[in-house]
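Researcher: Here's the sequence for the chain we discussed earlier.
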Amino acid sequence: MVETMRHNVYPLVCLLITLALTLLVATASVERTFSAMNILKNCLVVYIEKDLFNNIDNEVVMQRYQCMKTRKGQL
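Model: Thanks. This is the structure I predict for it:
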C-alpha cells in the first residue's frame, strides 16, 4: 500500500492492517512473559515453603511427574 501511495487514500485500512500484524507479535510477547512469571512463581513457592518441601522425598515427586499424561494431542 505504501509503494502505490494507497495508504493516503485508505488510511483506516492501512491502520487496520498494521494493527492486525502487530497484534500477533504483541500476543506472543505477553504469553512468553506470563510463562516466565509462572516459572518464577513456582520457584518462589518452593523456596518460601522449603521447610515443607524438605520433608518430601525426591522419588515421590519424580514418580508423580512420570505418571502424568502428556498435554500434547496427536493430530
